[in-house]
Amino acid sequence: MSYQLEFRHLKYFMAVAEELNYRKAAEKLFISQPGLSRQISQMEEVLGVKLFERTKRKVSLTTAGEHLMHETLFLNNHLARVKKDLKRIDSGEQGEIKIGFIGSAMQNVVPDLMVKMNAQLPEVKVNLEEMSNKVQVEKLEKGELDFGFVRLSRVPEEFHMHPVLEDTFSIVLPKNHPMNAPQFKNIAQLADEHFILFSSEYSPLYYDMIMSICEDQGFTPTVSHKSVHAQTIFKLVERGLGVAIIPSALQYGFDLDVKFIELKNIPQRTTLSVIWKTENRNPAMWKAKELWFGEV
């Protein structure tokens, strides 16, 4: 008997892939466990591959199954977007783009791009969400984002990365700290301080750069606190719990009792880049890309 692969098969497959338990997946789908097993067997017959390894004790995805799960997630997200786009087109709107960004991108870069969007593509809806570099890459891979504004040295092969801003680093000190710009010579003068840094999970590249700035001056910083939010870091510095090193662009837009000294005479620079998936099929995304970055 021959079968055809249908969307319901993908729904059944995803339930088992997420639960890794046929009984729980069947309950989730409101069908019988034998019926679910038959549906998965049909899929495997149509595709000609084994999707699950199944023993009395556990269920696990095969390599082919893991690939199908990844592609099905992308397909589901794409279909959800198509449904939204159809409703917008029907109501006279012209699409949507989803943008992820790290905090420093919101100082100037992203707001400036939004001004351009509002002026020249007002019909395109824009959704913005702050998130870590890692989460942006994951969401771009799944088709849940169109653009990411990140500080990364490399991205997956299917992505395009375009630098948008090169920035210096600055030290953040409490306002009453005795060190001021005229007395500052190099970071080694702060070697005995506690440092408050962005978490390495938030941006491994940035974390490594901060370490290299200190190590170039002969010391390894004592890191007392880590955070993923600039506001939190500045608050801790304000309270005298340590000093921080940040991309210089982050110093604007905060009204706190801290001061900044730019590290001009060091080789390290931090680059903010925009990334997107080269096979993105969202026409609104490509309109925005052309407006913002031209032929890159």
Automatic annotation (TrEMBL):
This is Transcriptional regulator. One of its GO terms (cellular component) is protein-DNA complex. InterPro entries: LysR_HTH_N, LysR_subst-bd, WH-like_DNA-bd_sf, WH_DNA-bd_sf. Belongs to the LysR transcriptional regulatory family. Residues 5-62 form the HTH lysR-type domain. SUPFAM superfamilies: Periplasmic binding protein-like II, Winged helix' DNA-binding domain. Transmembrane segments: none annotated. It comes from the Bacteria. GO terms for molecular function: DNA binding; DNA-binding transcription factor activity. Keywords: DNA-binding, Transcription, Transcription regulation. It holds the Pfam family LysR_substrate. Gene3D superfamilies: Periplasmic binding protein-like II, Winged helix-like DNA-binding domain superfamily/Winged helix DNA-binding domain.
